[in-house]
Predict the structure.
Amino acid sequence: MWILPQESTKGYRLTRDYKYNISEVAMDFTEITDNHCHSVETLDENGKNEFCDPAKISNEMGTDSESFYTDAASYWENIPPTVNGMLGGYAHISAADISGSDAFLRSIFQTANPPGHGRVADCGAGIGRISRHLLQKHFGKVDLVEQCQTFLEKAKDHFKGSPKIGEYICQGLQDFSPPANTYDIIWCQWVLGHLTDTDLTDFFTRMAGALKVNGVIVVKENVSSSGEVEKDDEDSSVTRPLPLLKRIISRAGLCITKDVKQKNFPKGLYEVRMMCLKPKVQQQSKNNTIDI
Ligand SMILES: C[S@@+](CC[C@H](N)C(=O)[O-])C[C@H]1O[C@@H](n2cnc3c(N)ncnc32)[C@H](O)[C@@H]1O
């Protein structure tokens, strides 16, 4: 789903991303100053805009959404509740992943009007790998949202008695609808390819409504460089090209205030982007909205 190894033992499609090989990208950080809500267009290593021809991008995945979700649930039910299971056999990239995320999160906290350290949602939490190694260190409370009960049970075992854990929410993100003013950060990693375009737009819209003032949504996902939505039938997920992901983000009333490429992953994997999203219009109080 999220990793395309050149040699796969799991029968993934073998697609190698030559153009945006992560370890060879020289310029990998584009940032927009806080308080200015723009769409960020990241440049490639030659300083050129990497956007693909929008005409090449499919709007819809052409997928029956019910089987798309049930097939994914069946796939994950058969995956062991381990870090290796969560990372498709690539447990060894977990440290680099967490380290990149930690730097990204710290950079968000250093902006003007940063989010608070109160409550975070780990969306598509799996066994709680990110909650354990990253989020609980930065937030007072962590809620884990995950559709697979077995994974949540594993997380509960680990966090038993920890005051850091708020709720274990066993639910698909397509149905997750937290109350307004709940989260400082909503962290979504390696899961959004399991939502259809329409459900992803609606999900972002609901999450925007659940943010506290100055709250943000973090997206850390693979992106395809082919300009196409690449579908993985094995785990029932898609990998979207960046322009499509950005269009969905914008359609949901959000803008990108930071856009960073993950570094130090092995060659042959999809490019991984970390993006910080804010509502284009942020709620300041019930009757008073501010443009940012
Ligand atoms: C590749 S794993 C990533 C887990 C975790 N984010 C991490 O990085 O360690 C994908 C996770 O998304 C979960 N998932 C798949 N479809 C989902 C959905 N519709 N809603 C919520 N979680 C989902 C899977 O059960 C699995 O735990």
The chain has seven helices and twelve strands.
